[in-house]
Amino acid sequence: MTQSDDVFRDPQRPVADRVADLLERLDPAEKLGLLHQHQAAVPRLGVGPFRTGTEALHGVAWLGPATVFPQAVGLATSWNTDLLHAVGIAVGSEVRAFHDKDPAAVGLNVWAPVVNPLRDPRWGRNEEGYSEDPWLTGELAIAFGSGLAGDGSGPLQTAPTLKHFLAYNNETDRCTTSSSMPARVLREYELPAFEAPLRAGAAVAVMPSYNLVNGRPAHLTPLINDVLRGWSDQEVLVVSDAGAPANLFGLQDYCPDGATAYAAALRAGVDSFTQDDNDAGPSTRFLEEALTRELITQQDIDRAAARALTLRFRLGEFDPAGEPTAPDIVGCQAHRDLSREAARQSFVLLKNDDLLPLPTDVRRVAVLGPLADTLQEDWYSGTLPYQVTAVKALTERLGPDAVEYCEGADRVQFGAAGMALEAAEDGVVGLTRSSAGFDLFDWGGDVCTLRSVRTGRYLTVADDGILRADHPGPNSWVVNETFTLVRIEDGKCLLRHHTSGRYVTRQDDGRIDVSADGQSAATVFEFTRVVDGAVLAAAAAARAEVAVVVVGNHPLVNGRETEDRISLDLPAGQERLVRAVQAGNARTVLVMSSSYPFSVGWADRGLPAVVWSAHGGQEYGHALADVLFGVVDAAGRLPQTWYRSAADLPDLLDYDIITSDATYQYFRGNPLYPFGHGLSYTTFAYGDLEISSPAVAKDGVVQVTCTVTNTGLRPGHEVVQLYTHQQNSRVKQPLRRLRAVQHLDLDPGESAQVELTVPVADLAIWDVTRDQYWIEPARHSILIGRSCTDIRLSAAVDVLGDPIPDRVPTAAPLPAAAFDEYCGVTLSDAEPDHGDAVRSEHPGAWLAFADTDFGAGPADCVLTVASELSKPATLELRLDDPYHGSVLATVEIRPTGHRHSWTQVSAVLAPGSGVHTLYVVFAEAGLFLRELTFS
Q1: Please, which of 67, 141, 537, 798 could form a disulfide with 368 given CB 3.0 to 4.6 Å?
Q2: In angstroms, what CA-CA distances link 722 with 137, 436, 792, 795?
Q3: What is the SS3 assignment for 668?
């Protein structure tokens, strides 16, 4: 058969036929070669190599200069699906251009977008996600993913991958912590953000997360095959996260060895193993061993290989060669313009007491702060092709004589033995009689960077442990440029290297290195503030008509992948700077550029104008100037809540937003800035609310119309937000939940009619008693406004659903994980590959099963239990109260050795008839319950 006869090379044939044809031609070793990130070539068939995993979160990363758009959370601040679609197209076209230049090095499977809902703003990877709301996250992911994939007229432009499945919002011990995920939280909050883009065809691959979910590694969750793949009518490739396969038998110690781990992952639905960089050898050997031990079958291998090939066919790899993407599309003028527009829409006006927009004839502006004349790249950024900073853009607009810049950094010296730390010309740091000192930048979390005045470079620790000042600043996975000043007494401190935890020490030969493991061996330095940066900045502010102070975070320091934040506060040094500037000039604009929210209540109370954006990419400065001077209206809206304090948040590892009253949906406190907040330079009036019908069937839609009018004196951009609240329910309901959005651009005095639609199916809740979505009969509030708390119009509609029947415990076994409420328990894995159970975390923990109809009263109950304790413990069944309710039964649970070593314990029940809330009460921590069977 000639190559022209090959079915797999015929683009007119269905993809499934082409995949089957090529798969049949491959021998077993060649099929195994497709199951690694770096897929091996098959020269005899003319099949080239292929790799998964090009980073494209907000621009092409790690491949050299490319267009850099605002961080993902900044793109999301636009709430604009058209914008994200355009950005996705641009990023996808640049990926194609890099690929066409070097196909072997640049893959077309892109690892974006990230759709983990931003449940907690302390998460180190907050910048990568879109929103705390799953619906908004899903809509934005559809837009960006479909842009990455292309216009649909031919092969995929790129193959987007959703990250990170599932329940992943902590970097602290991320590979070993388990996210306890009650059924309603899973179905109503976590899964929808993944479901929407897969159903829409905007993503063709998924990456599981590092963590465990309900006691089972996410890479082994049965949800991959049982739920996720059912959302798409196409094959979905599942790629492991980097190094995660080894975690299964390493850090997580879930599987006894590599072969067992790889087999379990393959059976769970993982198709491509990202392990050992470009060396597929270890992964292949584990899979070969798994085959030999009959842990997997050749059919399992073929299924995964077919999915890998399907993606490649959809990318057009085996079609006749077309025209390559023009290389000059990377960083082209159209993409520069789009970067500027995206940055414009990412700015949120948090507060404005008529200071903004600035007058065009302002004569002098002080531009101040550590981020005023620099732009930051995060780990998944592209390389900035150029930088338009706030200072540069405002100088362009006003002229050099009208702008005064002051970085506001303290200049400090570290003295010892009558000398001070200083960098030589080659960057090596030693003690000298005179020292120009170092500029200190506070990034919060007791972490700072130190820039040598002499070299203009940052203090770092070389591989040999020697202290040097020759680095451009934090810019790599391992950050060696951060330090902590450990105060030991007035005027004296130690310098601790943040990454290694070691201390700066002067050796006997005069070398300065980072070698001391403890404080006792560290060198004590006399700390001197030579120049007070805040004082200099305040003086500059006082000489100006307006002060613009730009502060925020460094994306690779204190809140990044592998490192969560502890506090929501602005770094203390930066707060001191802002307060000093305000004291110097009451007309101060606070501009925050950051990957996450801050608790800045003091600024909201004391400053006339507060603006925020994520790190905005190459055009940040131009966009900021456009917003400050009112060239465009402030269009951004917050995609997540800004809390007043970390005290408003539950524990970082508490994923149950319902029980913990977390996110805007359930939070009952008073946020600093609510979800959806964002001011305009004009004002809007809402009116004429109409609902299509006062009552609607469960298969219907709610159609809502209203009128919005620009009542101000300037053109403005409004984001109309529709929320719903279910007024009565069997279960606790969100206070509000975003359902629809519409953007309006209105001239002064102009009105527009808004039309929004809510499918009743979207109002369904997850019914734990039937393990399915359910539409209850209930009245729903329709809430329309400018944010989740700024509601301008409201009405009610009755949904004609069906009541949820009472539980009938004698009809089927009652799964322990089907509880309605709980206290002191976490979810666990019932078996390594399927099923959930519960584990008691302290004595007196309980589960509640509401509306349990015992009829005339069951006679007995069989409990499926396990215990890792060394002694027997008891479990009680009670009615209507966990501590004072009547006791149905008390059972003794003997040690079983392991949580998967299930045993059944029978109990004769005391009389109990009718409908009750059934409580299961655990006497000790460490007991496991899988199900209860009543008869």
Answers
A1: 537
A2: 16, 58, 10, 11
A3: coil
Torsion angle of alpha carbons 808, 810, 811, 815, nearest 10°? 80
Q: How far is CA 546 from CA 369, 402, 420, 584, 590, in A?
A: 14, 11, 38, 10, 11
Give yes or no for a contact between 872 and 856, defined as CB atoms under 8 angstroms apart: no
Query: DSSP secondary-structure letter at 560?
Result: B
Cα–Cα distance for residue pair 809/852, rounded to 1 Å: 7
Residues 6 or more apart whose Cβ sits within 8 Å of residue 736: 664, 665, 723, 724, 725, 783, 788
Which residues are CB-contacts of 269 (< 8 A; sequence separation ≥ 6)? 224, 225, 228, 229, 238
What DSSP assignment string belongs to 606-624?
Answer: H-SEEEEE----TTHHHHH
pLDDT at 1: 43
Q: Residue 253 catalytic? A: no
**How many Å apart are CA 56 and CA 66, to the nearest integer?**
11
Give the pairing type, strands 716-726 and 737-746: antiparallel
Residues paired with residue 238 on neighbouring β-strands, in sequence order: 206
**Residues 719 and 743: beta-carbon distance below 8 Å:** yes
Instruction: With residue 307 as reference, give the H or E element that holds it.
Output: helix 298-314
Length of the chain: 935
Partners of 860 in the beta sheet?
Answer: 908
Q: Which of 133, 241, 656, 767 is catalytic?
A: 241
What pLDDT, on a 0 to 100 scale, did the predictor assign at position 3? 54
Question: How large is the average pLDDT for residues 437-447?
Answer: 97
Give the residue carrying structure tokens 């029978």: 906
Give the per-residue pLDDT at 324: 86
Q: How far apart are CA 815 and CA 818, in angstroms?
A: 5
Residue 233: both structure tokens together: 């009518």
For 537-554, b/e burial (b = at least 16 CB within 10 A) is bbebbeebebbbbbbbbb
Helix and strand totals (H; E) in the chain: 19, 48
**Residue whose entry in the numeric block shows the structure tokens 């907690």:** 120
| Residue corresponding to tokens 């460094």 | 554
pLDDT of residue 478: 94
DSSP 189: I
pLDDT digits (tens, 9 = 90+) for 259-307: 999 999 999 999 999 999 999 999 999 999 999 999 999 999 999 999 9
d(CA 205, CA 207): 7
* Contacts (Cβ under 8 Å, ≥6 apart) of 828: 178, 214, 215, 836, 837, 838, 839, 899, 928
Q: Burial of 457 by CB count in 10 Å (0-12 exposed, 13-18 middle, 19+ buried)?
A: middle
* Distance of alpha carbon 729 from the chain centroid: 31
pLDDT band at 176 (very low <50, low <70, confident <90, very high): very high
DSSP string, 15-84: HHHHHHHHHHHS-HHHHHTTSBSEEPPBGGGTB--EEEEE--SSS--SSSB---PPPHHHHHTT--HHHH
Q: b/e per residue, 437-452, with b = 16+ CB within 10 A?
A: bbbbbbbbbbbbbbbb
- For the chain, the C-alpha Rg in angstroms (whole number) is 30
Region of residue 763 (left: phi > 0; alpha: psi -120 to 50; beta: else) = alpha
Beta strands in 859-926 (DSSP E): 860-867, 873-879, 886-893, 903-908, 915-922
DSSP 418-462: TEEEEE-TTSBEEEES----EEEEE-STT-EEEEETTTS-EEEE-
> Which pLDDT score is estimated for 153?
81
Paired with 471 in beta bridges are 458
